[in-house]
Amino acid sequence: MNTVPLFSPTVVIVGAGHAGGTLAGLLRQQRYDGRIVLFGDETHLPYHRPPLSKKYTGDEYVQLLRPRKFYDDNDIDVRLDKPVVRIDRHARTVTTTSGNTTAYNTLVLATGAAPRTLSIPGSDLGGVATLRTLGDAGVLRDAVLSKKPIAIVGGGYVGLEVAASARVQGCDVTVIEREHRVLSRVASTELAQAIAEFHRDRGTRIVTDAQVKGFAGYEGQVTGVQLNDGSVIPCELALVGVGAIPNDSLAREAEIDCEAGIVVDGSARTNDPDILAIGDVTYRMHDTIGRMVRLESIPSAVEQAKHAAAVITGLEVPAHEVPWFWSDQFDLKMKMAGMVAPGTTPVVRGNADADSFAVFHLDANGVPVAVETVNAAAEFMAGKKYIANRTKVDPLALADSSISLREVVL
Q1: What is the pTM for the complete model shown?
Q2: What CATH number belongs to 331-398?
């Protein structure tokens, strides 16, 4: 068991999600011998969030990052159900809802993001839900295992993951999307069309170009989603999945620079030299992408935790990785790398009808800037490497799956 020296420097981490929990572990792995205090809003130890939408119908949706014993053995002071409500930058302290104050030498904000809600009639009805926490996943799990009809407002990755798992359980599922297609903000037309057809073939109803004006209810419980055209989609649970908002109010109140989240540099530093920020809450400069972005993904959270750990321990900050993301829907294993940008040329490799293909997005010089794959692990790994190395490829050869991925390189 490690022993923290008396009067040692203190790292306070606000947020016990994937980013905060990973950072606490990394600091001990990198021989940081100061005090570590980890504050969490929830009653649970840090846990994996992807299973909440992918595996919520089975017992494996509860997956802790590390067991309690790890934190005890490594002298990590975990304070659960202790929301921090104030930062005093001058005194270098944080204060919780109970009024307790903790001093820090380095403060790391890992406050994550919160589901965007809809301020429309009926949004306070029972059965109108969002998905971000284990508690939320438990509500969803109970509804699905009870075979209740479900309406999902928002056709993003989380909504489609929930839809897939619910259909496997035999639920009636309707996905409602205000744009003309699903995944409109996060995926190419080619990928979105293939995924939508895959869902429809398995019984998911997808309604696009649909504006939600309210939720219908009876005796305090939701009974349907009302659309602007006057139609009502019946349901006993309405899951709202229309994006997330960074939890940056704590930082804003402390006058830490914020735009589309807490502004940090490429090493997770804020405008206060004693305060870092990591994870979904951050708006950061990403060297691979070449601009400021807010990334909501586990790989991004882990990468920034590594940056923060290096800054705190005085090690060299690792280079930025190519951003990537994954999604599991039915028996589709999707992996995406890079960022799909306007003006790029899509090149499809493989067969969407056979549920194994990739869409490479090439810039004007023939260099891939993004790749989207479905059941195509080799294409994902090659595409990620092309993006990182700025590798120019032959688009005609790339589209021919009989030509090896090595041979498409120019």
Answers
A1: 0.93
A2: 3.30.390.30
